[in-house]
Amino acid sequence: MIKIENIYYMITYAFRTLGRKGYKNIQPEKFETIQCLLAELLHLEMSRQIKLGLAKDYQEVTEALIMPRGKINLSDSIKQNSHIKKKLICNRDEYLENTLINKIVKSTIRSLLFSTQVAEPQKQHLKKLLFYFDNVNEVNLKSIKWSSLRVAKHHSSYRVILAICEFVSKGYLLTEKEGTNKVSSTLDDQALHTLYERFVLEYFKKHHPQVKAASPTIDWDITAGESAMLPRMKTDITLTCRGVSLIIDTKFYSQTMQTHSLYGTKTIHSNNLYQLHTYVTNKAARFQGTVEGMLLYAKTNEDIVPNQTYFISGKKITVTTLDLSGEFHLIKKKLDAVAGELLNSGGIL
Fold first, then answer.
1. Which of 121, 308, 314, 328 is the most buried (most CB within 10 A)?
2. Do 289 and 243 form a contact (C-beta atoms < 8 A)?
3. Angstrom distance (rounded) from CA 336 to CA 341
4. CA–CA distance, 159 with 342 (Å, rounded to integer)
5. pTM over 0.85
6. Helix 34-52 vs helix 4-14: angle between axes, to the nearest 10 degrees?
7. Banded model confidence at residue 264, pLDDT cuts 50, 70, 90
8. Which residues, in sequence order, are bridge partners of residue 298?
9. How far apart are the C-alpha atoms of 305 and 256, rounded to whole Å?
10. Cβ(322)–Cβ(299) under 8 Å?
11. Residue 9 and residue 15: Cα distance in Å, rounded?
């Protein structure tokens, strides 16, 4: 379970919107449902985008015209007997607002307007936005392949908007326990993991620039063979400070620990540990200093959660959790402590 307030902060850090106009006036704890919060964020972002102008792209338009414009399509003109009406079928490119990303936004607004979980004040805000989408069609949000959706550089201002639309369309974060201000994380762990990973990275970048937070790719320590056939080792977060490199692998699961099917014993996810140890070992082979690793799980409502430090093959591996169900100042305190230990002692205690 994650507090709505923490979802708000995760989004604003992940997409660097915390200081934008309007965000400081938002009180996330006042929203009864996550849909209300997402609707309000979408309204804020789209109000800003409308001032910049809706995204436009060149699109092919085909029309039967008395006065030809663009390229005359003789084949279609003959097939449709358009000459009888003294018209010709013409193809031309026009700079239009009816783009895929605008279709997604309009369809998301419409879905929120039909949601019983969105309060009337947020619905009124969304209705005002629809006025600007008169020339935009709708799209079936279930047909969108979000993983392959690419936003052109000149439309980069839509990145946060589309992230909100993705949450809404896939139903991420949209199940609340009655009488609480927390949301269920059982619908799609992958979406929450992406948000969680980006939040942690951007938090370190904003508040602790001294630790040089990045997400680099690690080279394999090979002495023979073709490295192109090996999988890429892309780290979630790497903090580097004073000769120490800390590789942080963020994980978001409904169940933090894996359970043995026969004995019922709980252990750390083996693949997570193997992967992180591989990263640390290969990084250490080329790094002039100390390399450590950390598995940073998002804490669930399980009774047993990992909180251990191991030395495996001489490499320090910390396994711990970040409680997203608590107050945000406690989340900050935990992340600040990670950076502070790097700065003060050259390593994680």
1. 328
2. yes
3. 9
4. 32
5. no
6. 30
7. low
8. 322
9. 7
10. yes
11. 10
Above pLDDT 90, what percent of the chain? 40
- Phi/psi at 190 (nearest 5 deg)? -65, -40
List 3's β-bridge partners, or say none.
182
Distance CA 167, CA 93 (A): 33
HSE-up of residue 190 (Cα within 13 Å, Cβ side): 4
Digit-coded pLDDT (tens) for 128-184? 999 999 999 999 988 888 888 888 888 888 988 998 898 888 765 444 444 455 544
Q: What does the alpha-carbon distance between residue 165 and residue 105 come to, in Å, rounded to a whole number?
A: 7
Q: Residue 338: is it exposed, middle or buried by C-beta count within 10 angstroms (0-12/13-18/19+)?
A: buried
Angstrom distance (rounded) from CA 335 to CA 301: 20
Distances (CA, A) of 194 to 107, 112, 115: 23, 23, 25
Percent residues over pLDDT 70 in the chain:
88
As a whole number of angstroms, the distance between CA 5 and CA 326 comes to: 10
| Token pair for 250 | 């963020």
pLDDT attached to residue 71: 79
Contact 218, 205 (CB under 8 A): no
Tokens 């995760």 correspond to 10
Secondary structure string (H, E, C) spanning 104-157: HHHHHHHHHHCCCCCCHHHHHHHHHHHHHHCCCCCCCHHHCCHHHCCCCHHHHH
Distance CA 286, CA 221 (A): 8
Q: Which two tokens stand for residue 14?
A: 């992940």
- What is the spatial distance between Cα 176 and Cα 205, in angstroms, rounded to a whole number? 31
Q: Is 218 helix (H, G, I), strand (E, B) or coil?
A: strand
Alpha helices in the chain (DSSP H): 4-14, 34-52, 74-79, 100-113, 120-130, 159-170, 189-207, 270-284, 328-345
- The predicted-structure confidence for 15-50, as pLDDT tens digits, reads as follows 888 777 778 788 888 888 888 888 999 999 999 999
State the maximum Cα–Cα separation within the chain, in Å, rounded to a whole number: 86
Which is it for the CA torsion 39, 43, 45, 49, positive or negative? positive
Which tokens belong to 161? Answer: 């908007």
298 closest CA partner among 341, 260, 269: 269
The answer to whether residues 126 and 39 touch, using CB atoms and an 8 Å cutoff, is: yes
